[in-house]
Structures are given as C-alpha cells and as structure tokens.
Amino acid sequence: MTASPALRDVPAGSYAFLPGIAPFSSGVVATPGHQVVHATLRAPIPWRDGFTLIDRHLGEQGRPRAALCAIELRSPAPFSFGGFDTFNAGYRQLLGEWGLLVDGENPIARTNVAPLVGAPAEPSLYAFGYTIAGATPRPTFVCAGAGELRERAAGAEGIVRHGETSPDAMREKAAFVMRAMQARLAALGGDWSDVTMIDLYTAQPIETFLADTVLRPAGPAAIHGVRWFPSRPPIAGLEYEMDLRGVTRELVL
Hints:
The protein contains 4 helices and 12 strands; from the N terminus they run ββββαβαβββαβαβββ.
C-alpha cells in the first residue's frame, strides 16, 4: 500500500485519515499491523446513545476510544443547510469531548442519510468502524459518504443538476460522485480490487446508470454488486450519495 502524503496519522487509533470538512473526514485507512472492523446495529438507536454503545463495545474489545474511525447515521429526513450545520456542531462537540479531534481536525469518516421507509424518529447510529490489531493482506479502509455537491459554500447552487432527477441528470450526479470516490480511494492507498462493499443512497431509480456509471468503472469490485439503500442524502436538494469500504471483518451487534 502506498499512502498519500495528504493522509494524517492517528497513532492512538492505529489509522490514518484523509482530511475533509469540520463534520467528518473524507476517509480512513488502518495502519500496518491493524485492520478496520465494520459493525452494524440490528436496529438504529439515538446517536448519543449510540456513542455509549460504541464506548462499551470498544472497552469489551480492549480498544481505546481513539480506535473509532467511522460512523454511519440515519436521520428522519434531510436537513436544510443550516439545520445540517446545527446538528454537526453538536456531533463535533461530542467528538471533542471524547478527545478524538486531531489538532482541530475531525478524523472520523461518516455517512448520514434519511431512509424513505423505516426512518428513525431522530438522528440515530446505524453502524460504525473501528480498528483492531491484526495484519491483512490488503489495506482496510472506509471512504466517507459523498453526494453531488460541487461547492458547499454555494449552497443549493453548488449541487450538480440541482432540482433535476431525469435519467440523464442522475447519471451525471452519479458520475460526479464516482469520481470523488475514486479520488478518495486512491488517496487512501487503496484500489478497486480492495473494495468489499459499495453502498448507494438515493430515492431515484438506479437501473439507468448503475452498470455504466458505477459497476464498470469499479472494475474488480463490480463482482460484489452494490447495496442500494432507498434513502435521501442528509441535505435537502441532494439526490445521490455513495460510500465504499474494504474490510475483512463485518459484525452485527
């Protein structure tokens, strides 16, 4: 594995992260001699209670809080841009209280979407990733969720094909996000052959663009297919989100 010079180490957590924005990093990769474990909850629980569960689980595994490297949330509905910022402020504050920020940067990768069916009543923990000791033949990593937002500061005007959901528009949105995933994957020192899970999040049909825009560019990872979560991205106006991971251990708690 050839790591990107852009990566920053989290020695206490045994991983490195690709810097992103204040609420989350763009991705994480375990350092040599360690691996990322992905754990999914059987049912989401309110996110603050979820951190209590994470704390207990890490303790049972003999791992420090710093081993937490990825979070997946489920929300009742998409936020406004302002509402998303408000939620993220409280979320980041908790990470600070846990001592997880690195020189003010947030190392934790994250995905946060709103399911069309079965959404929780409040933002809730759905899954998380953490590191444990143990070498793997391939790098283990998580690429954080990304939507079709070109420029965060531009608000809705920064969204690719904003307000459009035609097959052509969805293909363009998916292609934009796929390029972001490719860049993150490369920066983490991984390759499509290392990917074990591709997750797609959209309320729109995916059949018109899935093969040409996602699976073929994914090369060897295409054999694993994708998981489609009928969901909306976390900010109103976005229509498509995607994340990736490459792990050797998947748990259900």
